[in-house]
Design brief:
Number of strands of chain A: 0
CATH architecture of chain B: Alpha-Beta Complex
Oligomer: heterodimer
Mean pLDDT of chain A: 84
Shape of chain B: globular
CATH class of chain B: Alpha Beta
CATH superfamily of chain B: Oxidoreductase, molybdopterin-binding domain
Largest sheet of chain B: 8 strands, mixed
Radius of gyration of chain A: 20 Å
Low-confidence stretches of chain B: 1-12, 15-53
Largest interface: A-B, 40 and 52 residues
Distance between the termini of chain B: 33 Å
Distance between the termini of chain A: 37 Å
Mean pLDDT of chain B: 87
Number of strands of chain B: 13
Order of helices and strands of chain B: HEHHEEHEEHEEHEEEEHEEH
Order of helices and strands of chain A: HHHHHHHHHHH
Structural class of chain A: mainly alpha
Shape of chain A: globular
Number of helices of chain A: 11
Chain lengths: 251, 321
């Protein structure tokens, strides 16, 4: 039996609208943005630059790494480890940013946030895929049997692989066409896998270090907090309490 | 392998830094996996011998040791910018950035326990009667990377003999300095401070075991454990305790820091063993510093089996990991 109210903070309509907007199709947000452009120029400019800005931020780790690899040649004493870290870390950071979008939008009422969610998720997946490729190349030397052994025997590898495996179907079904094909509810349910990916990714980082460090604990705490937010939100809906306030702004 | 002393190099022969940096760019692109295109790069360090350590004092009268490996040492730069020394932070580059704060002069090593000559020794008093030797050893970190290091030091056995161990002494316990004002990593409790380590008496007396005071012919850089550290080349790197302020001879197996932190993952012995994996990663292969691929097979006792395997005869090395 399907529940009456979808749990996902971003309803399908909104996800659809976001992608429609991206592809230049008309959407409800467009006239609103134009209205605000005339009232508050700076704010509107910020709104317009928001998505390209996020794109630039997401590209930065890749650009820095390419620069260090091919221009300065300075990847440190353990270059493979540098490549692994500097792709794994942004993958996790962007994954956390992806799941932070809905709660943030809910709390701030700033609906434009939703427009960068898919991009953040796809960036997270891309970094994770490159990260995995480096592991396959430098650590396992393309020995797939060795990878399988690693996954079976080591929670550290299993957790990373789980995160990647969860992100793969989400990346593949991130298009507008797939939202339509799967139908809103089913698409949404599938995409809750992002929480499994985030939790697995945070554990992967914790298990990579010999000790608990401030950095790994921070990421883990963020995942726990965001998951907690979603659970509380869902419970409130289920027991009939008004869900957390949902505001809309014109930006 | 011949290491040129920095003093032998004419000023004109020293490569300017910008050339040195651009020259070592060397790329290799590679490969496709099951999932897509995979890029790899390789940095090739020319001349391998490393930069001279201008900051450090040259050690006089160092003799070469027949116990050295003939393998090419890693560069001075690699060995001083990639360190595990949690007293200065958990990141690999943290020690090189933070260790300058450490005062290594004056330095006192407190020798006590079951010894005939307990006292507070200066580093000089402790090692001076022995001749400094260069020992080029393989280093295998428990994290599955490895290096080759040209240490300068003296056999620990000679030092222990001078302080006259009691016959009841079965173990040697070592302690690192605890000084959070200079060792900023000690301000957070990632490990229990001070760092402590230990060896069984026969391990401590083994000719391969040294107290190092230098590297690359010069006194130790702070991030490498100045002014005096242990080097036990057949054990994982963390056994080779740095910046020692205490040496105590004891009857019972002393506590060791990584064992306290996680007994399941780090045992007292921690001998390099490709057949006993770390619970979270394989120990069968290692990645040499400067290289990309984790393709070097790890050797039993880090390649020192001929010299040390007899110490562990009859012991189940899976149980005593």
């Amino acid at each position: 039996m399907e529940r009456e109210i979808p749990e996902g903070a971003a309803g399908v309509g909104r996800a659809g609208a976001a992608s429609a907007d991206r592809e230049g199709a008309p959407s409800a947000n467009r006239p609103l943005r134009q209205t605000s452009a005339s009232s508050g120029g700076a704010l509107a400019l910020f709104g317009r630059l928001f998505k390209p800005g996020v794109f630039a931020v997401c590209m930065t780790p890749a650009v820095v790494l390419l620069y260090r690899t091919f221009y300065t040649g300075n990847l440190g004493a353990n270059p493979a480890e540098t490549l692994l870290h500097e792709t794994g870390r942004p993958a996790l950071q962007m994954l956390l940013a992806t799941i932070a979008v809905s709660p943030l939008r809910r709390l701030t009422g700033w609906s434009r946030l939703i427009r960068v969610r898919r991009m953040l998720g796809l960036f997270a997946f891309s970094y994770a895929l490159v990260h995995f490729s480096f592991y396959l190349t430098f650590d396992r030397l393309f020995d797939l049997a060795g990878v399988v052994d690693d996954v079976i025997e080591r929670k550290f590898i299993l957790s990373g692989m789980t995160a990647l495996a969860c992100m793969l179907p989400l990346a593949l079904t991130s298009t507008r066409g797939w939202i339509r094909r799967l139908g809103g509810k089913r698409w949404q349910r599938l995409h809750r896998l992002v929480y499994v990916a985030a939790a697995a990714g945070a554990l992967h980082f914790i298990w990579k270090e010999k000790v608990l460090t401030a950095e790994t604990l921070t990421y883990f705490s963020i995942v726990t907090f965001l998951l907690g937010f979603r659970v509380v939100d869902a419970l409130r809906r289920r027991v009939g309490v008004a869900p957390l306030p949902e505001r809309e702004t014109s930006l | 392998m011949l290491i040129r002393k920095p003093s032998d190099i004419k000023e004109s022969e020293i490569t300017p830094e910008h050339l040195y940096r651009s020259r070592r760019q060397f790329l290799r692109l590679g490969a496709a996996g099951t999932v897509g295109a995979i890029a790899g790069g390789a940095v090739w360090l020319r001349g391998g011998g490393g930069q001279p350590a201008f900051a450090q004092e040259q050690l006089p009268n160092v003799v070469k040791s027949p116990l050295s490996t003939s393998e090419e040492p890693n560069s001075f730069e690699q060995l001083t910018t990639y360190n595990n020394f949690y007293e200065f932070g958990t990141g690999k580059e943290d020690p090189s950035e933070n260790a300058h704060a450490l005062t290594v002069e004056p330095w006192t090593v407190k020798v006590d326990g079951l010894v005939g000559k307990p006292a507070d020794y200066s580093v000089d008093d402790l090692i001076r009667p022995s001749r400094l030797e260069e020992r080029i050893y393989r280093l295998r970190c428990v994290e599955a990377w490895s290096a080759v290091v040209p240490w300068v030091g003296v056999p620990l056995a000679a030092v222990l003999n001078r302080i006259e161990p009691d016959s009841r002494a079965n173990y040697v316990a070592f302690t690192t300095l605890y000084r959070p004002s200079e060792m900023r990593g000690q301000r957070s409790s990632v490990l229990e401070w001070p760092y402590v380590e230990g060896l069984r008496m026969d391990e401590a007396m083994h000719p391969l075991t040294i107290l190092a005071v230098g590297m690359y012919g010069r006194s130790l850089p702070n991030q490498n454990g100045a002014p005096i550290r242990l080097v036990v080349p057949w054990k994982y790197g963390f056994k080779s305790i740095k910046s020692i302020v205490g040496i105590s001879l004891v009857e019972d197996e002393p506590p060791t820091s990584w064992n306290i932190a996680n007994a399941r993952e780090y045992g007292f012995y921690s001998n390099v063993n490709p057949e006993v994996d770390h619970p979270r990663w394989s120990q069968a292969t290692e990645r040499p510093l400067g290289g990309f691929f984790k393709n070097k097979p790890t050797q039993m006792f880090n390649g020192y089996a001929d010299q040390v395997a007899h110490l562990y005869e009859g012991m189940d090395l899976r149980k005593y990991y």
